[in-house]
Amino acid sequence: MHALIVVAHHDPQSLTHSLAAQVAEGVVLADPGNSFEIADLSAQAFEPRFGAADFAVHHRETPPPADVAAEQARIDRADALVLVYPVYWWSMPALLKGWIDRVFANGWAFDFSSDAKLVKKLRHLRVHLVGVGGADGGTYERHGYADAMKTQIDHGIFDYCGACVVTSELLLESETQDPTAHLDAARALGRNLFTASQRCSSKGTDLLSMA
Q1: What pTM was estimated for this model as a whole?
Q2: Positive or negative, the Cα torsion across 37, 152, 141, 125?
């Protein structure tokens, strides 16, 4: 089994990168026959801005640019997709959001047109989310952030494409507590990556607009 672990942080010494490495370690510990690839979006200088070429792809006027096609091929090779990212302003970093905006394109992640029913093309994909937050759990709970995250990301992005979000974790108090517990949790996620299961339903709600 093969995992694609996507990291969105500029500092290779960050906790975010350390967590991604622990997920990778857990994948191999679970079965030496497993494999992984880490996509470091910052190090590879991925262009996150959704531009005219991407708009043309959405309207099925042109094939995806080379950098987008390469990322789609990475995902196609994976049995599981893991996103590891710091929470910026109660959301994912712009780099990761731009990666999703460009890579999860019409014609590859889904088929959409004004005169045809939406076709979700990533029903085979299993997704795991690891958000790294600085605030404590009480703060997130009081403001309903966990539910908001599931609405925006789990449903708004992945369910739209038919992908199943198997696990969605928030590792909190990242700047004040000993990171050992978070690192252990990331390793455990990696060990269980291909055995975790969850019923997934697609509600078909259209939350995408390129107008």
Answers
A1: 0.90
A2: negative
* Relative orientation angle of helices 66-76 and 94-103, to the nearest 10 degrees: 90
Distance CA 74, CA 208 (A): 23
Question: Above 90 in pLDDT, residue 28?
Answer: yes
- With beta carbons less than 8 A apart as the criterion, state whether 64 and 51 touch: no
Tokens of 206: 């259209």
User: Which structural domains are found in the chain, ordered by start?
Assistant: 2-191 (3.40.50.360)
CA angle 51, 93, 161 (to 5 degrees): 65
Calpha distance 137→104 (Å, rounded): 31
pLDDT digit string, tens, across residues 51-101: 999 999 999 999 999 999 999 999 999 999 999 999 998 889 999 999 999
Output the CA torsion 52→56→59→65 (10° steps).
-120
